[in-house]
Design a protein that fits this description.
The complex is a heterodimer of chains A (310) and B (333). Chain A is globular. Chain A has twelve helices and two strands. Chain A has one domain (78-306): Orthogonal Bundle (MetI-like fold), CATH 1.10.3720. In chain A, helix 1 (4-60) packs across helix 12 (276-305), helix 3 packs antiparallel against helix 9 (217-233) and helix 11 packs antiparallel against helix 12. Helices cover 77% and strands 1% of the residues of chain A. Chain B has 333 residues and is an alpha/beta fold. Chain B contains 14 helices and 15 strands. In chain B, the strands form four sheets. In chain B, strands 2-4-14-5-15 form a five-stranded mixed beta sheet, with helices on both faces. In chain B, helix 8 (194-204) links the parallel strand 8 (185-189) and strand 9. The chains are: A mainly alpha (310), B alpha/beta (333). At the A-B interface, helix 1, helix 5 and helix 11 of A face helix 1, helix 4, strand 9 and helix 9 of B.
Chain lengths: 310, 333
Amino acid sequence: MNKTSPVAVNTKSMTFRRSKTRISDKIIPILLGLCALLSVFTTIGIVYTLLQESVIFFKEVPVWSFLTGTTWSPILPPKEFGVLPLLGGTLLITGIAILFAVPIGLACAIYLNEYAPARVRGVVKPVLEVLAGVPTIVYGYFALETVTPFLQKIFPNMGIFNALSAGIVVGIMVLPMISSLSEDAMRAVPKSLRHGAYALGATRFEVALKIVLPAALSGVVSSFVLAFSRAIGETMIVTVAAGATPQLTLNPLESIQTMTSYIVQVSMGDVPRGTIEYGTIFAVGLTLFVITFLLNILAQWVARRFREEY
Amino acid sequence: MFRRRGRKPAGILVLVLMLSTLLAACGGGTSGGASGENKENGSAQQTEENTSTALTGTIEIDGSSTLHPLTEAVAEEFGAANPDVRIPIGTGGTGAGFKRFNNSEIAVSNASRPIKDSEAEEAKANGITYHEVLVAYDGLSVVVNPSNEFVDKLTVDELKKIYEPNSTVKTWADVREGWPAEEIKIYSPGTDHGTFDYFTEAINGEAQASRNDSQITFSADTNAVVQGVAGDKNSIGYFGFSFYEENQDKLKLVPIDNGTATVAPSMETIKDNSYAPLSRPLLLYVNDKELERPEVSAFMNFYLENAASLAGEVGFVPLQDDQYKAEKDKLAK
């Protein structure tokens, strides 16, 4: 009897616990589901706001002239609402950033994955990822106070606000995204593939470039696309360092204005609600949203299209 | 058994974490937005002040970034004596300030130009009456990069040539013969700054009339104009005198030839009105309804009592003592 009584107590408490577990089993999925729904509703809310305010704008300015106009002067007369200078400025910055970040990021990933000793990798990778955590306003002043003066020594006629410096620093910002995600993708390539190549007499570089990189292509390319869409939406760096001159130019030494920094500029000012100038914020925001949305779809498509299964 | 015991707290932990995040998200809004700067130095004077009045409340101010340094200096002194009064001050520009002023969002509007008719009408339509208070004078300062050696002065006409709508000036050679044919980088405070309104009216003859092409950069933040002129060899820009005073080492001040004399802005030339046409009044607009609050009227009187000593510190020219007295009398009416 002495031995059975604790067992009896235990079973009792067990059933008690079980019933509690069942309740939490029901509540927790609901709570988790609510959290997931919250993000869905946020997205819907954003799209709704953007559309609602843009509609007012596009009643006054035809979509076509907005998309094809080459002059952006929404506040001062003669008022013109052609988004191309802002789009051009954004793409110029993004282009410079990607030109800078893709080769270096890829080189970092290959080095970390194929060459670096475990100890070096253990230090370098976290340090690279710290770059992703630097506040972008800090990057902005880094571009303005450090990179631009340095570049001005190479290009003496370059202005203090220019696309090149901002673009390079945006590149530095997205660098860890490319190197880290690519490195993860390369790490996932099975060892057996590498060993096979080594057995055939391939050098390390050949293995990295001809075996691992193609095998990891879906991850690598989607890291590019993600970095691209992150660079397009970057705001603080371009606001601080790229200037506020909407113009259609391919010259990286010129001051330009991106879609994001335009939105910042106008939001800081006193544009009255409900006016066409106020609508520009949402029209430009919608354009930006559509672009990053399409890019994210592209990233998913790329990831699926180039996936190699082993 | 043992496992089960371990798992239960984990489930509760998740719940607690979720709840606390939710609570934190809800509560976050109320605690933010307070500016703590007024709390400093409070304890010293507190005992003395507490005997007479213990003012509390918030005095919302927004508007001109030019006038901001003076208002901030006054608010700091005022906050030292009245630690329970919070005075958040925005720098959205004079136009932005009046916009908020007319929506009754702020008690006091900093202005680097007199209120426009359209703004006054809007205030009237919204049932807002106000007092206009002159607090100091400022001289709009035209500056170029310090490495620029050829610009000795600019006439009002030359300034107009550079800044007027549809300006054809591309290089310094277009401004005056003999100057180098280097492209000018033109900077201007943003279109909702009183500085922009005042400059365009004084130089181009009409407020908001300005060139508007890829050669001119409008910055909503006046410090970006300072950075631009300081960083570009062939630049020109303008802003309130205090911005020049703070950044003298990075900028070269340009004397202005107004046809009768060539004058550079300084305390003296702004005070005796010889720095024409670019010296201007700095004003406060206070909502009459807000003025009835004891802390607001105390602040306004404090402002007029201390503006004379603080204006010089932040780069403005104070009024005469009897002028301040007259402004105070106006306020009492």
